[in-house]
Amino acid sequence: MRNSPNRIVATVFGAVYVLVGLLGFAVTGGVDFIATEGGLLLGIFAVNPLHNIAHVLIGAALLIAGFSSISAAKATNTVIGAAYLLLGIVGFFLAGTAANILALNTADHFLHLASAFVLLGVGLGAERAARPVTA
């Protein structure tokens, strides 16, 4: 793999999100699939089985992109970063409501925003000559 900020970030974040998703299942035994309050991962991040699956799928997408090409990693970092930015903001309004199907809590919101800033920063700022993959 050519040293590329986008590929490195996609691969590292992908591995972390897959791991977080898998570890989340250890704390969600007995938690409903879309429970609005979940188990606590690392004692602070609320998760439910749907949230865990989302982490695994997002991590897999990042890993695949990171191992594929610079342009795939750049596009995936940007898209997932934008999604996390939206989720980080909207999450503050979902907490405590029936719409909180990912069992989000305040720690989740700030972690999603931090992920968004890194993914978007690298996706939009690094390797400007690399063109994102288009359909």
- Number of DSSP-assigned strands: 2
Low-confidence stretches: none
- Domains (count): 1
Q: SSE string, helix = H, strand = E?
A: HEEHHH
Helix share, percent:
55-70%
Structural class: mainly alpha
Q: What is the general shape?
A: elongated
Q: Tell me which oligomeric state these chains represent.
A: single chain
User: Treating each run of at least 4 consecutive H or I residues as one helix, how many helices?
Assistant: 4
Q: Tell me the Rg in angstroms.
A: 15 Å
Could you describe the largest sheet, including whether it forms a barrel? 2 strands, antiparallel
Distance between the termini: 24 Å
- Arithmetic mean of pLDDT: 94
Strand content: under 5%
> Order of strands across the widest beta sheet?
1-2
Show the helix and strand layout:
Blueprint: H1 5-24, E1 39-41, E2 45-47, H2 49-68, H3 70-94, H4 106-125
Helix pairs in contact: 1-2, 1-3, 1-4, 2-3, 3-4
What does this structure look like?
Strands 1-2 form a two-stranded antiparallel ribbon. Helix content is 63%, strand content 4%. Strand 1 (39-41) and strand 2 form a beta hairpin. The protein is mainly alpha-helical and 135 residues long. The chain has 4 helices and 2 strands; from the N terminus they run αββααα. The protein has helices spanning 5-24, 49-68, 70-94, 106-125, and strands at 39-41, 45-47.
Name the descriptors:
two-stranded antiparallel sheet, elongated, 135 residues, 4 helices, mainly alpha, 63% helix
